[in-house]
Amino acid sequence: MTKPSQDAPTGAAPHLEVVPLGGMGEIGKNITAYRYGDEIMVVDGGLAFPDAHQMGIDLIIPRIDYLQQHAGLIKGWILTHGHEDHIGALPYILPRLPKVPVYGAPLTLGLVREKLSEFGIKDGDVDLREVDLNDKVRIGKHFHVEFLRMTHSIPDNMGYLLTTPAGVVMHTGDFKLDEQPADGKPSDLARIEQAGKDGVLLLISDSTNAERPGRTPSEAEVARNLEELISGLKGRVFLTTFASQVNRIQNLLHIAHRQGRRVVMEGRSMLKYAQVAQATGHLETPDPFLTSEEVSGLQDQQILYVCTGSQGQPMAVLGRLAFGNHAKIALRRGDSVILSSNPIPGNEEAVNLIVNRLYEIGVDVYYPPTYRVHASGHGSQEELATILNLARPKFFLPWHGEPRHQINHAKLAQTLPRPPKRTLIAKNGDVVRVGPDEFKVTGTVPAGAVYVDGLGVGDIGDDVLLDRASMGQEGILIMTAVLHPTPHVEIVSRGFVRSNRELDSQIRKVALEAVEGGLREKKRLEDVRDDMYGAVRRFVRKATGRNPVLIPMIVD
Amino acid sequence: MTKPSQDAPTGAAPHLEVVPLGGMGEIGKNITAYRYGDEIMVVDGGLAFPDAHQMGIDLIIPRIDYLQQHAGLIKGWILTHGHEDHIGALPYILPRLPKVPVYGAPLTLGLVREKLSEFGIKDGDVDLREVDLNDKVRIGKHFHVEFLRMTHSIPDNMGYLLTTPAGVVMHTGDFKLDEQPADGKPSDLARIEQAGKDGVLLLISDSTNAERPGRTPSEAEVARNLEELISGLKGRVFLTTFASQVNRIQNLLHIAHRQGRRVVMEGRSMLKYAQVAQATGHLETPDPFLTSEEVSGLQDQQILYVCTGSQGQPMAVLGRLAFGNHAKIALRRGDSVILSSNPIPGNEEAVNLIVNRLYEIGVDVYYPPTYRVHASGHGSQEELATILNLARPKFFLPWHGEPRHQINHAKLAQTLPRPPKRTLIAKNGDVVRVGPDEFKVTGTVPAGAVYVDGLGVGDIGDDVLLDRASMGQEGILIMTAVLHPTPHVEIVSRGFVRSNRELDSQIRKVALEAVEGGLREKKRLEDVRDDMYGAVRRFVRKATGRNPVLIPMIVD
């Protein structure tokens, strides 16, 4: 395809290394590095939210050891769009790496600036460079990037064609093929088809919905369903969706305008996204937003609240409304609540709790699948097939998915008329070498999760989470043996059982006997402590069937 | 309708009290009491499984204070079917109440006996009385019960007509209207229609799927889909479903026989249900079950494993297979795994984890909705409407559902040609008074959850769970100030942050300063302890942004 350049490793055909550091084998914390010779280009820097087992963690960012170890090689960075799972880790990552050009579309960079400023990172500390869709940029000597418009649930979303001496990579970014996008600008399929004809060496494509047959509904269909639903409602309407669903919110503003409802945006992230999107010209407001005080004089059917809380977060606006602890607004009979969203896996219970509370309050509640007021931002099987058919890649890397999604995406590709010659199911940290005639994993680099909790980044590891889980499941029992003047044992517990004097005194007795026995035998204090631990462990297990975390202490 | 009997409360029309103690406003731990005059009849005694917030709890049983307070009035008990959410609490409940006749169908009582014997409760301690479908029994003077066959996902499932001097109650029990049940015995709709013509005062009906349009697919459809799927598979097949899905397992045994596969039942509960169902004649085995050792000589396509673990439990068979720690069986490429189940709300993440592991192992994985290999045991809107139309109740109590299900069931009833005159959305503990011309909540009795954890029943309350949640989220930090010979502070933490000497020494310093200050001012020791607590709380919050559970101790 191309001749080896001088910078390519000697003695080998020219090759590119694709190094996913996040987002490969998972949905979340997307970040990918490309290395060609002694140059690295990075794509995105997103975060992930913890699952139920990662207790107390606020968020998760990717490990970037690989980038830190090769910091001098990084020539530039590109951002595909402004969702948290693509830009949310930047405030943690960018300050730890050399300042290089970071390219992104206006809305994306607007959201990044907002985020960096929250962390006190100044404009001068980063080199953000605005690009338009279809712009081309060169990063280092070897990376030629051409941005492509791809429709998604946020405007200014991009895939890109990456031309290197080893060949052309087509990366879809997050996408669905929405034929009626809110901003009237569909995906650039013609350019993908042309690239396919010219020769795409590797396709990296969004696997999120690889298990869903058919097509993902258009945002326009969601808007039509919302308009029909809202037009039939008499009272106040409260709608919740992701704050980042700028396209849907745009449609909603037009619906509200046509139906004579004024819009109140409620919730910090809802306001933040709206402000940035307005500033970058991505959110047209037919009527100015009002505050909840300003709409108090209007009739109920003239009010539409757009709220945070679609994932059941108890402290977001919908959560506070459902639990009756919102400072300014109280739900009442006659109100309608629309959940223009689906729970993300893991949030089902939290959302269900809120939905039940809403029913108990007596408001009318509308949500999928009964009401078709939500659509995914990711393409289903037909859309994935369209991209594969147009790009006609030699090699294929299903990305942005868990193994189930990657493998079903790979199977889908094999059913098409011109399947890829080879597909790899990669993981974070895999070094995927790709060249005109090779496509394989040649090694691994460190990759994984860094936990962010409170002010701490990376000071919580899986060992700490394991302790949290044990205490959360079984509680804790602390035994303090004080040896002087005469040995006695104090116990304190949390989360073990309801205070129970008889059990407490039995445990103290068992512990004291162990301590006294050890002292009589003149054991070392560590051994006395271990004896106390063992005796209490056995007794508690037998008496209660439980295994609390036990902490034995000896005060000499 | 009927005249007041002598035992009816004087000065009022005859009335019945329906007192749901579990299963009303929730899905789980079903138990209902009926009171007429000075007689009480009880229905079912089920358990619930904890949600994510009820950490470390094994299971939940209903509070039975009401029954204990009126123990002398209880005349009998009936059981609708053998699922855990209807009989699982009996070993905890029955021993605390007087011995009264407990009526149930053969399979139901078989499962109850098995369960009681696990708890060491002897046959003579309870008065189990076998009834057949369509049998009639009298309980006390006033309760005339006629059992009705209703199809569900377990054989021997029953609803009933309860005739009292106040009128007739029709209770569906759990049901779907399966036209092709595995045992060939459809629901007794003709009897319900007749009862409707004769006059049903109150209908209590299953709301589980009140939000689902249409009909729930028949078990026969699931069986056809399973047969088609399995007939195309070449290697070993591992199928998981609820062990209590006796009807589905019956169909599977026939499928295996027709396809020349021998069946291995794996998992304790799978074996237990199969044994009881075989003993009561509800599970016909065309070929005897084999063990995993016995099938080792067979070819792969001659083997069907039926396993526990459909809800993602890591220690059940499928979980151990997925994580590669099953003692006898290892999955390999060429195997197929069928999840003939859906995750119960709350179990999605656990099931997803296992599905991904299966893909990573390289086995083929089949599950809904892509493969239609599961159907709910509860009827959807059309089936609910059928019951309402046949029973034509004057009053309606949507049961076996959360508020969202109850309210949608109530709304459905209002759309029918002959809607109930009144519908109540009741909660556990409500005393629902029903008579020829009245239907209202007249009071409440204690109702709610008793947590079972290890050997403890009820020794864990919401306060203990709150402590567990706090420690699980933030960890714990224990500070022990030892005052002699000179004051010093020891700290121990779990689940807080990775061991960090500098932070530890800062915390010790802050604590010690507070202690020394307090001692100088000759404060009381409690106050010194509180000072240490406050100082460390403030310091830790500022230094780490976190709020671990703090335990201050002073050793004088």
UniProtKB/TrEMBL annotation, chains A, B:
Descriptive protein name: Ribonuclease J
Cofactor-binding details, from the entry: Binds 2 Zn(2+) ions per subunit. It is not clear if Zn(2+) or Mg(2+) is physiologically important. Binds 1 Ca(2+) cation per subunit. Seen in 1 crystal structure, it is not clear if it is physiologically important.
Quaternary structure (record): Homodimer, may be a subunit of the RNA degradosome.
Keywords carried by this UniProt record: Calcium, Cytoplasm, Endonuclease, Exonuclease, Hydrolase, Metal-binding, Nuclease, RNA-binding, rRNA processing, Zinc
Gene3D superfamilies the UniProt entry points to: 3.10.20.580, Metallo-hydrolase/oxidoreductase, Ribonuclease Z/Hydroxyacylglutathione hydrolase-like
Any one GO molecular-function label of the UniProt entry: RNA endonuclease activity
Example of a GO biological process term: rRNA processing
Enzyme class name: hydrolase
Entry-linked SMART domains: Lactamase_B
Biological role stated in the UniProt entry: An RNase that has 5'-3' exonuclease and possibly endonuclease activity. Involved in maturation of rRNA and in some organisms also mRNA maturation and/or decay.
Superkingdom of the organism of origin: Bacteria
Family affiliation: Belongs to the metallo-beta-lactamase superfamily. RNA-metabolizing metallo-beta-lactamase-like family. Bacterial RNase J subfamily.
Cofactor: Zn(2+); Ca(2+)
Record bears the keyword Hydrolase: yes
Organism of this sequence: Deinococcus terrestris
Iron keyword on record: no
Active-site residue numbers: 206, 378
Annotated Zn(2+) binding sites: 81, 83, 85-86, 152, 174, 400
Ligand binding (substrate): 374-378
Enzyme Commission code: 3.1.-.-
Any single GO CC term annotated in Swiss-Prot or TrEMBL for this entry: cytoplasm
Cellular localization per UniProt: Cytoplasm
